[in-house]
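During the reporting period the student researcher (J.K.) took over the structure-prediction task from the postdoctoral fellow and processed the backlog of single-chain submissions. One of the processed entries is reproduced below for the supervisory committee.
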Amino acid sequence: MKRLFRISPCPVCGKPVSPLSRFYVRDSWICRECADLAGCLFGGNFVSTADRLALMQIEEVAGLIQKEKAEHAAIVRAFSADWTNLFVVTGVLSASDRRGKKQIVGIVLKGEFSPGSEARVLNLNVESPYGIKNAESYRPDPGKGLIRGFLRHRSVREGECACLTVAEADVCVGDILGG
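J.K. obtained the following structure tokens:
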């Protein structure tokens, strides 16, 4: 019973892993932040993050996160001189019953995004900006409706996995938004 409630370091990032906010991978437990980042990188799929992580080993999760962090650092170096806010799209949620809006999932690389702000797709050199209707922290697993309700209509900041609602736009996985 002592092992069940023991706090141990996350093998990916080294932060303490609480028994109440941890995710199981094939050979260990990881913290909520690493699980959210990995889930955000999986995109908005129907398979839950917990199920995907249970099939992976620590080395796979750590490699995935380190590879993405290196790519994100390169994006920030390339665009940071001209843009104060950067967001990389990792998934597009289904557009059913969104009334002309699209929800995009990704990671805020620099700055912050909030409802009412504007963003452009930088890698396509699109001139017309997209208005952000809503910004919320992204938790990839379902069943967080109550928590998501409290997190809506606020800014999402650097390092957070986020879900942005924009007007129906041609935004795809891998696009970079800047504001």
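The committee noted the following: The longest helix spans residues 58-79.
J.K. will present the remaining backlog at the next meeting.
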